[in-house]
Amino acid sequence: MIVTPSGQSCGAAVTGIDLSKPLGDEQVAEIRAAWLEHHVLSFPGQDMSNDDLERFTLYFGDFGQDPFFAPIEGREHIAAIRRDADETSPLFAENWHSDWSFQEHPPAGTCLLGITIPPVGGDTLFANQHAALDAMPPEMRARYEGLTAIHSAMLAYAPDGAYGEKDAGRSMAIRPDETARETQLHPLVREHPETGRPGLFSCMGYIIGFEGMAQEDALPLLQELYVWQSRDEFVYRHKWEPDMLIMWDNRSVLHCATGGYEGHDRLLHRTTIAAA
Ligand code: SIN
After folding, report:
1. pLDDT in the model for residue 268
2. By the 8 A CB rule, do 173 and 70 touch?
3. What is the CATH number assigned to the segment(s) 2-273?
């Protein structure tokens, strides 16, 4: 197995391994170590079935719960990230986030397998939140250290949210509902549960405020933080190929979809790795 760092703030390509075959304990341990070091791993040239994708996911934890998505037919734990060539609804996930950070136990990671990849555009961006915290000027860090963030899916998945009842013509099987209004608290600055490395967890969008702080004070803080978290120097731009699998660590990075592939289909299969 060869691990080649992207040269950007995070991310590495892994070659010399065939993920369509079961892996041994040593290979899984090597991948886990590389994942914890680089936060985003890509595996090019993997001809994987849905069974292979599920088997790979389960090496790293149980399946996480995916609310607000209907799974693909015949599978409980695979969602399609899909956009058709003629689709005009706003892009899915074109804002920074950490998957399902509004859950009580947010998922450790996400796997995404490229199936139909457009010839241009559709890159996925990742922002390293350990680097973002490390580089924060002390007076700025002092404003955020110790805050407890209020997370919720309401802005995206409530019936009146971005993917709610007004979201017409979307090919993805998104299922908004009232449970999106529930809230959950997590520290904003926290140690990674496996490596102990401090980082910023999640961002404005799924974070809707701070515990004990008026909204008029919280919103400018969240906006300032969002701009900082996604500065170019913390970002890895992932370029897709068909038959490429990627896995990322939601505890270490934010991610964001990009467009630029109008007139082309895009389809990826996604699984979620539960928290340990
Ligand atoms: C996602 O956030 O799961 C989708 C990312 C992408 O479509 O690039």
Report:
1. 98
2. yes
3. 3.60.130.10
